[in-house]
DDE-1 domain-containing protein
Amino acid sequence: MDENSPAFRAAAAILQDQAEDLLLLEYVECVQRSGFPITKSQLMAAARDLRRRRDPAAGEMDRDFYGSWLLDHPEVRIYRDATTLIIKFFEDLTKIVRDCRIGASEYWSQDECSIRAGTVRQQVQVAVTESIRSQTSRGVDPSNPESTGLLVTANGACDTIPPWLIFKTFPASWPEEGEAVDDNDESIRFVQSATGFSNAEIALQWLHHFNMWSWKRSERAQQSGKTLEEWFGCDAWLRNPQTPHSEPHTATPTVRLPHEKIYRLLVIDSSLGHTSLDFFDYCRKFDIIVIVIPSDLPFPQSIGEDV
């Protein structure tokens, strides 16, 4: 068949659509494998991203796509009752912790809060504020400085990993984006976004950081006597340890049998940056189980919020 013929192009388009549909279903099953339902916004964003891999200029999905896709895939169950969702959340969480041998040092939660830093009477003042993504942050600093995002992560053993600060306007006199502040705080990282909050790109960058530090904090990982590079055969950026300056995402991590795997559990919120295709794919490669906490539940780390 002529590759330029309308019939050939139509057949190719059908095959592409079918392949994308299978990838989308795999993504949804990955999100819901532990019983955590995917939201409409997450499904629509994933479908859009898959389409843009083929056509970078593709627009948003049609409004009818969500309903039609669910009708075509009745195996995907959407829980609409909040009480049912919360009960199922804790049932599934208990099963995951038991079946995957998750200890306190492998159980992590990440949260994002807002801080406001500014100079008042020649003194630097920092205030932690309540942060709701859809609303303006509530500041208590009289200078009304710009809000800055703070990514914090802790585990059940009370260990933490170095935080990330997200600036809307990056201070010109500070280190380059992604670099350390100084010798005393070499692990803290500073990044920039248009909103001062994390996005899909920052979330994926942070995930590499989490992978590296959470392995060092894991009791089971330390008992193995192996570094992250030795266990997976690549570093956190998927590079061959023998060629650390090579291009990232060129090595394939070692896949172990289920009973050999050292799982880490990461509890996050349901923002789109945390539930992107690339985010889940990276976690799958490094045996990181992602749990998206229901919006009806208070987050484990309510930093700076009113109690």
Q: What stands out?
A: The two ends are 68 Å apart (CA to CA). Residues 6-32 form the longest helix (27 residues). Helices lie at 6-32, 40-54, 65-72, 82-99, 200-217, 219-223, 228-232, 277-285.
